[in-house]
């Protein structure tokens, strides 16, 4: 079973079967719906504005809450679904609207911010079930180059604007009384959920029952101290697929639970590929050898750059991406080797100093990978001391 199978077969109300990690993953994918004009806007949205930031949901109704059926508007479908799997996000919406488990859930407090100049892409909404619980959901990365640029910025700066907005959003919506408060998201949304919870006031933090981060990356080293994590340690439910790349990036003190996926490699990042049994995921004992190798290589490689050096490398990479003519991240990720070749070719046409920066950054990555591969082979060779 996967998420869509779960929605098609799990009919028990939340009073009978409490909110679980699969429910969180399902709602995290509704966060990928562009809900302007459908989900009521956060009333405090003006307090989120920095000069020049675009509030994308200005046309959203200002009060109340809606059901998932209210989002079934075919005229909005052409631009409604975002992310790398928009068709599955659409199927998820249809399944939520049909589900007896979710049909009485209300959605409210939509906030969407986008700022190319400040490299900001942020969206969040709150799901409420009667007076039983509220789930504060954060959107993962859309396909915009702005959103992906902000992801890369996380490697050398903290906080990025979306993290600051996430903390402010949780503080704004958590003041309403509910019996149970959950926070969560997938990919970048998982990072934002963890950041917001860790930065929340003691009063809000005490109310949080669970923080769900589904293959969400960690944080730049030093963003949080071990003591910060200790305040929520037992309440953070961190899941990654067995071939995880994104969810193992950077620093996190929350031990991940490894989920079995039907896909391979980077395609496992999609929660729609994660296996479900009953009311939870199917868990494995550990990451694959390949995922552990990738984690070790990327961790060592990123540690070799100062914040200033990492910023220069990221600037150089996105200059090459823009020179390639790519309109958004889907052009690169769906283009495979051809897209990579196109960026590499574009890099030849950019400023020579910028090109040299890229080449200098990639050289140690190759060397680190080769060394880890050699050590891996040596450790399996009979009589080896490695």
Question: Describe it for me?
Answer:
The protein is of the alpha/beta class. It has 2 domains: 3-288, 3-Layer(aba) Sandwich (Rossmann fold); 304-379, no CATH class. Helix content is 41%, strand content 15%. It is built from 14 helices and 11 strands. It has helices at 3-9, 21-30, 77-80, 86-98, 145-153, 161-173, 188-199, 202-207, 226-230, 289-303, 307-323, 329-333, 336-347, 352-380, and strands spanning 54-55, 105-115, 120-129, 133-138, 180-186, 208-214, 236-241, 257-259, 276-277, 280-281, 283-284. The strands form 2 sheets. It has a 9-stranded mixed beta sheet, with helices on both faces. A hairpin with a 4-residue loop joins strand 2 and strand 3 (120-129). Helix 10 (289-303) packs across helix 14 (352-380). It comes from Gordonibacter massiliensis. It holds the Pfam family Mbeg1-like.
**CATH structural fold name of the largest domain:** Rossmann fold
Q: What percent of residues are in strands? A: 15-25%
Number of separate helices: 14
Average pLDDT: 88
**Structural domains: how many:** 2
Task: Please give the CATH class of the largest domain.
Answer: Alpha Beta
Q: How is the largest sheet built, in terms of strand order?
A: 1-2-3-4-5-6-7-8-11
Distance between the termini: 40 Å
Using only CA atoms, what is the Rg?
Answer: 21 Å
Oligomeric state, counting identical vs distinct chains: single chain
